[in-house]
Specification:
TIM Barrel, 2 domains, seven-stranded mixed sheet, four-stranded parallel sheet, 18 helices
Amino acid sequence: MAAVLYSADVVCPMSRPAFGDGGVLVVDGLIAEVGQAATLRPSAGREHRVDGVLLPGLVNAHTHLEHTDAAVLAHNRRHIAWTRALAGLLATWPPERWGRSAHRGVLSSLRAGTTALGDVVTRGPAVPAACRAGLVGDSWVQVAMVDHDSHDAVTEQLSSVLGLPAEGRRVGIAPHSPAAVGAGVLQALADLAKRKDVPLHLHCAETQEEITAVRDGHGPLADDARAAGMSFEWLDAAAGTGGVTYLERLGALTDRTTLAHAVVTDATEAALLARRGIAVACCPRADAQLQAGQAPLERFAAAGTPLALGTESPAAVGDLDVLAEGAAWVSLARQRGLDAWPHRDGQLSLPEAAVRLATMDGAAAMGWGEQSGVLATGRRADLVGVELATSPATVWADLISHGAGRQVLTVRAGVRVARRASCDQPWPELDDDSWRA
């Protein structure tokens, strides 16, 4: 197959500094070389140019693709009210709506430049949809409102699901949160993840209501559990703690575990996560939109807690744009009193740190570093083009300040899977029926 050159004003390989007038030479779906466009051009059979930036395909560390058609719910309200509204809407969906919504989520992710993602799966169609699209990462099967009365049946069903083929992706387990399952169930799921050698992913310390439910046995989430007839252990005998400390007590913090949110996390818990190498997918837009609070980035920075960026559900924020999440993360970091980010390479500007979280560092934190996050020879050719006036000296700030919504090209394994002539040109309407193919 003839070599294809993707060129841009600035190329950000992430594994080395950004440089101008660069290109990525692709042969048979793999990156053959990254360098100056003028040097690579003679080896290319054709060229595709982006007036702006080329960088690795973006990493969305936490989302819910099957919720894409529920984006109508994405407006400011308290988390508990949003959760109840979402449950009510999803209960009205027929099976085909879940398939269509997952398909739309995959296409929206590709248009936003994402080629690796972690997806919480409720009904199932998001797994084959992500596999067909060639998205790498994890698909976590959600477990919610399960107590000791039903956990044997659920564990047996999960064991079967975890053995199903999912080309290019890891299928794991997502106990929804500590307040959505019993203590024994959570321990059993952590043990199953260990035995099956699969990832375990949880919403944890997302809201104060979650902490109050498990620690004290009361509050709106405890009320919901009682109304659903659950026999969670912490309803009768409050755990006395919540969040990260509670997971540690139950043995659920392992080398397979990743968390989302961790908003209500103290310095001791941040240090525990750092020691264990457990990554937190930060979702600052959803945390703000749903009035959940602010992730304590200053504590994560001081402890060295691994981080990534996640958009959360489209039903929470309305889109799947990781660059928008990066902008929100930078804003949050400044609000938390940070003006730089500690890194093994030295202090980074907040915009550069955010772009790293959306690419190389986020991929490494989530366990996908061998598959995504950098532009380097021999890697799968996954890249995104962002139309943007910029230079190597200002590219990080420009991407964070202006990059969201300006993605014009996504290449996955050397194939252009999303493209438009200009960021001013709207994307075509998504086909309601093409998901059936």
